[in-house]
Amino acid sequence: MAVTETAPASAPAAGAPAVAARTAAAAVTAVLVLLVAALAVVDITQGTAAVGPHAVLRALTGRADPGDASVVISSRLPRMTAGLVVGAALGMAGAALQAVSRNVLASPDTLAVNAGSAFSLGLLSVTGASLPLLASSGVAFLGGLAAAAVVLSLSGLGAGTVRLVLAGSALALGLASLTQGLLLLFPQETNGLYQWSQGGISQNGFDGVVRMTPVVAVALVGLLLVARRVDALALGDEAAQGLGVPVRATRITVVVLAALLSAAAVTLAGPVGYVGLCAPVLVRLLVRRVRALVRFRTSLPVTALTGAGLVLGSDVLLRAVVSAESAVAVPTGVVTSIIGAVFLIAMALRVRDTATPTAPERLRIPTRRAFLVTTAVLVAVLIAVTIAAVLLGDTKLLLGDVLNWTEGRAARSVSFVLDTRMPRVAAALLAGAALALSGTLVQAVTRNPLAEPGILGVSGGAALGAVLLVTTASSAGSWAVAGAALAGATVTACVVFGLAARGGFGQNRLVLVGMGVSAATSALVSLLIILTDPFNATKALTWLSGSTYGRTAADTLPVAGALVLGIAVAMARHTELDLVSLDDDTPALLGLRLPPARLGLLAVSVLLSATAVAAAGTIGFVGLIAPHAARALVGRRHARVVPASALLGAALVCTADLLGRTVIAPAQLGAGLMTAVIGTPYFLYLLVRGRGRGVSR
Length: 697
What we know:
Layout (H helix, E strand, L loop, with lengths): L1 H44 L7 H8 L5 H36 L11 H15 L5 H23 L5 H25 L7 H4 L10 H19 L1 H7 L3 H6 L4 H23 L5 H10 L11 H26 L2 H6 L2 H19 L17 H24 L7 H8 L5 H35 L11 H15 L5 H24 L5 H25 L2 H11 L8 H20 L1 H7 L4 H5 L4 H23 L5 H13 L3 H25 L8 H19 L8
Helix pairs in contact: 1-3, 1-13, 2-3, 3-8, 3-11, 3-12, 3-13, 4-5, 4-6, 4-11, 5-6, 5-11, 6-21, 6-29, 8-11, 12-13, 13-15, 15-21, 16-28, 18-23, 18-26, 18-27, 18-28, 19-20, 19-21, 19-22, 19-26, 20-21, 20-26, 21-22, 23-26, 27-28, 28-29
């Protein structure tokens, strides 16, 4: 009897928290709706034409002047609506990917979905095929889905945070390099593709929005249908299977739907960066206060609103800060990428760094004779590559022509070719050796086998400094460009290494902070290129591809001086490098002060990277590949690794430059694009190989 008397009283008490949670979720949703609506109203009023709120209201009610009505209906409203659709789609895609991977950094950007979609659409534009918008969306969907499949297969669903981000970022870099190659090879067919590839929501009418909105709606319905299964996955695979949830099928379904959302957004506005990362993170911050948002079904619409608010807010901020004429040219994705980079850095500092710095993998120690033979072979290979680079190109020469040129007896045509080709070869050789040595120093100091100047953002900072000077002072000399690159690299190095040092240069924190800084510098470089005049923009874009085109002997002097200094320091302090690369305790026991030693070696590494970027543009992965290959050939002792790594780096970049000049002559591809094509698969291979040793978990 007592049980029946207390049951009715306890039911309302048990349901009170649930009601309160639903009320809080409804309140959050209402606030977001009001915020997004306010941003939408402000966004409609911004633009080059002086159309204020009253004119917008008259246009919506059919009482405006024909000119104002045309601006509002044909441009402002489609732009605002596209921002809503794109932001909602990317927010939901990021939430879905983070839920099924149980990884707070999973998003269309970090899984290379956006990069795959953009590359597939770039290929489509090169073919000259004119497909309907829905068909183009299908092409983008297949490209994005294929990229996500590669990343997830290499990193594994539920894998460590850094492994997934590294795999996705490496693949995205490779795909972006291929897309950039299309821009340089097919300038007519890809006209406007660079600006589109930065993500802009400006529209010419409602046609695109009308066609893409149903695609987003279908994906949303699909995610809501599997929402309960997604919630079960949060409990773990075994628990979900115990509840009867088909784990594999659910994950595949959610990834496909997320790729569909991303493809729709990319087709409509280009790859708008990092919205899919930031929106779910912002919603997750509310979970402690609003428990109802733990459920995927409840959080999904909130994340969609948050994504829409991020895109519209970025567009409003852009048009408020930049002049109306410039804002037309600057894609909204540049602003979202900068915001996303800040988020990535902030999250890197919060992620628990379970991967402690470790020494490089144990390798065999070759005998002195084996080392000398290996070095001799590397020198022979480098000489052969150098000779081929001098003789081959759009004009083929003979060794006799080179001998006559050195003696001043060559024909005018031969002298012209060699006068322009020799500095290019020298720039490639010196830049390759400098980047390889820089990577060797960084990997030793941080004890991170995946560290290199490009991945850590140092090369990006150097590129930002150099591009800033190139686009504002096109007549700047080589020493001025080198100084600007050094300044940019120094600033980014201070940020990356300063933040990473708080955790003892842990692998996770160092790499994630570096990638965040790299994303920010890339966005700023894109902003400079878009805002500058077309001549300087083309010059900067060619230079960023890692091209040695137009280099003179004076351009090679800064990197040559830095390389001589770097080799001298590295060889003189090779014992310190060996000790620093082991652990923190051994150097201290032997009387070596770690902080000054690290600082000095990192300073030399930054100098090498900056001057290499100034001499040959942005060239990625050389600082990763060359030290790994050197350790595999000659062992871990840096007295041997330093010369071997420099020789390998020089040969690699010189070969890449040679292939870029000859494979599709008279057209050319930058050495940076070639090394990215080579380096991306090698980087992914290192991730797979390091899986068993706990690298970047």
